[in-house]
Amino acid sequence: MAMRFLPGKKKHVSLIIKDHVIRYAELKNQRDLDLAKWDERFLPPGIIKDGKILDYDTLALILEECVNEWKIKNRQVYFTVPDPFIVLRKLTIPGDVQEDEIKGYLYMELGTSIHLPFEEPVFDYHVLSSNQKDSSEILLFAAPEEIVMEYTELFEDAKLRPAAADISSLALYRLYSSYFEEQQSEAIMLIQIDLNSAVCSIFESEIPVFMRNIAIETDLSKWGTAAAPNGEKKIEYSGKEEEVLHPLLDIYNDFEKVMNFFRYSLNQGQRQISRIIVTGDHPWLEKIHWDIKNRMEVPVVSFRDCLNSGQYELLKHSAFHVNIGLGLKEG
């Protein structure tokens, strides 16, 4: 379910670029969650907004500094397409379209019978049902080619080798399904809470059925970094606490609407979310988790709560969960 670029089996690194941060991680191997290296560089406001690069030259300079500092020059990179640009669609296609013909069929139908909110997409798909007499169902994942290529060029300019573009929700579910206790038939909601956005996704029987990016109203210029007692950097807010907490109430309401949509519109009241998992890089994530838990009627947990084993210390650092899931992707 990833948009691929370069072939090869060389060990890769994962890079996540958001409006406020560049985050890097490298797993020791794909059989466990131990990170060999990890780091992050916070970005000043105005360089990226809602995933769109506004100041390419400054971002390229910062990324080049990171590449040199982290010693990852010429490495293959897996990255995520910015969440605001991801489109997930469930499509019905003619049953006589063979699996090896689906990509060609989609190229022909995009812009005619299949409409997306942008032109010139890059896309991938997952077959849900095939060999049906009259029709088959697929999941289509798409993003604007312009955005994907701009990030690809950014990495290439920094002497990196982009190998695959993925989706943050898929990376998180890969982490969840690979290492955490689960019932494959359950319907779970994954919630990512970052500084200025939330991503809500639902997976049913291991298949993504819903993804939505929700902007969080906040002034990024009031967020800054400071040194924590352990020497690591932490993010602090210079304004009033209410300026951060009040907009989150609308986000919580949106989560409840999504749950009701899944239960009543998609499943006619016969099925509901069985578990909500909250993660993200928001510095107040613990309070946010508690607020969501108090509003919902289903269990609300963190990745740490789902662990089969308590040995993975770095899973406590929720900001790197997407990186870890991206690192678990097979080359």
Automatic annotation (TrEMBL):
Pfam families: PilM_2 (PF11104)
Gene3D superfamilies per the UniProt record, alphabetical: 3.30.1490.300, 3.30.420.40
Name the record gives this protein: Tfp pilus assembly protein, ATPase PilM
Organism expressing this protein natively: Cytobacillus firmus DS1
